Amino acid sequence: MTTYDPSNIFAKILRGEIPCHRVYEDAHVLAFMDVMPQADGHLLVVPKAPSRNLLDADPAIFGPLMAAVQKLARAAKQAFGADGVLIKQFNEPAAGQTVFHLHVHVLPRHVGMELRPHSGKMADHAVLARHAEMIRAALG
Ligand code: AMP
Q1: Quick one: which H or E segment has residue 88?
Q2: Which residues have C-beta within 8 Å of that of residue 79, sequence separation ≥ 6?
Q3: Domain count, the chain
Q4: Is residue 91 a part of any domain in this protein?
Q5: Which of 12, 52, 68, 82 could lock onto 17 through a cystine, CB 3.0 to 4.6 A?
Q6: d(CA 115, CA 39)
Q7: Model confidence over 126-139: pLDDT tens digits?
Q8: Is residue 3 part of a domain?
Q9: Structural domain span for residue 27
Q10: pTM score, whole prediction
């Protein structure tokens, strides 16, 4: 299927049908912790408007989406004392996409520290809750 499927897990999170470790929300986006973080502080920024990925998205959402990504990248970098921030985004299974609602990954990076595998191990929820709180605190 290459059309938008509203039963995807991020659509359910956006509708409040399943929980998430929420970090930030505005009129255009919701940001929450990735449950299988590749680095401490790994979060996802999800536009509220439905699209499968970047390829079918309305370009009008990119401004507010990237503004939120920048805000969250700065906060995550500060919260984790990171040396840099990796931003990544996958389109279609061939490119590594596993959840089919557009989302941008924000990962604090430290020099010399390897990333954990993509869609690897589920993190402890208490740890995710603490990391979400650290980033919310850095957002001010
Ligand atoms: P991708 O579609 O390849 O960009 O990756 C989807 C990401 O969503 C992966 O990094 C998963 O760990 C993450 N993920 C999957 N289910 C959930 C969930 N319920 N809450 C938060 N993150 C999730």
Answers
A1: strand 84-88
A2: 41, 108, 131, 134, 135, 137, 138
A3: 1
A4: yes
A5: 12
A6: 6
A7: 999 999 999 999 99
A8: no
A9: 9-139
A10: 0.97
